[in-house]
Predict the structure of TetR family transcriptional regulator.
Amino acid sequence: MPPPAPGDREARRKDVSEAVWQVLAARGFGGLTLRAVAAAMGVSTGMLTHYFPSKRALVTHALDLLEENTAQRSRRARPSAGLGGARAVLLDLLPLTPADAGRSRIWVSSWDLSLADDALSAQQADRYTRLRATLRPFFETARARGEIPAGDPEHLAAAAVAFAHGLVVQALFAPGRFPEEVQIAMLDDFLTGLTLPRPPAGGGGPSPGR
Amino acid sequence: MPPPAPGDREARRKDVSEAVWQVLAARGFGGLTLRAVAAAMGVSTGMLTHYFPSKRALVTHALDLLEENTAQRSRRARPSAGLGGARAVLLDLLPLTPADAGRSRIWVSSWDLSLADDALSAQQADRYTRLRATLRPFFETARARGEIPAGDPEHLAAAAVAFAHGLVVQALFAPGRFPEEVQIAMLDDFLTGLTLPRPPAGGGGPSPGR
């Protein structure tokens, strides 16, 4: 059989990506194997090794797909600056729609893989660094505008990412308990907490039982 | 070879559990295979099938081990009630020490597996329900004592679990960025936010850019 023409190769590559996504959506990274992707495409595992000579190549492609799919999602309109902008970034992280939930589910599933691999772990740490760096300027502006009291924007970004990702996990396991409006109300409560005047650090304000 | 005596069997069972834990700690649930556990014990995969006739039996044992190990961890002394009690429960969730981090890492790794399996997913949802139910009475008392303003204790519990678990994930990927004292300071900031007087719902208070 002659090698496929460039156009065919492109089309086949798209088929491969769709099959990888389908396997990830149904089984996560734990279920991502050459065999499963080949079955989803209706081809032999041998054929697939032309595209992915190893499990690692398959995983790398799957992570690239996940990044691409995440970058291409329809984002909420973002106010240019301030707390409203941070809110828009954080809403984009939550599994509000079935498509968002599918993507979130694959991200959460990738953590197992990443934690077991130094290179992937470093990539995930970088992703967190970039996410905090995306949020930080919004908190800086919010502080400058007086929307939030003084506070380290990097710490606020880390706290906001923590809140959002922990909500993602809870919501994925109990979508009925955390429908879209509950997730949004929880995020807004969290953000309102950031706007409230704080007692001076180390002062005699309310203390959570230290 | 005769079957092992009951005492031997008990000792062997302990060896098996230690090997399962060792594999989980190094590779997560994604790397948990009969072959890997057998290699960690220095026995044949065939021998191990006496204990685990299937991958599913191995996974079930691993999840049981994780629950046991988590239940047996040395817990912080818990004030009997109020916000300080909630704080102690939440501190127990964070990867503050290397042992905590090892356990957290295995929990996070289990989510991939659980999301891909309806029965395991339901078990994880139940775990979240129990965790919120553990926290709720502390928030109820905190409210009754006036430590926190009015608010639904179930919502507060869900928010606190979200914050803690999202912090777990970030800290696992960047332990240098999130040492023990940073995690504790972040949790205390979050709890302080819960103690602040809130503007009336739907009122004219600060709004996060709705």
User: Anything to note?
Assistant: Confidence is low (pLDDT under 50) at residues 203-210 of chain A. The two ends of chain A are 73 Å apart (CA to CA). Chain A has nine helices and no strands. Chain A has two domains: 8-69, 74-195.
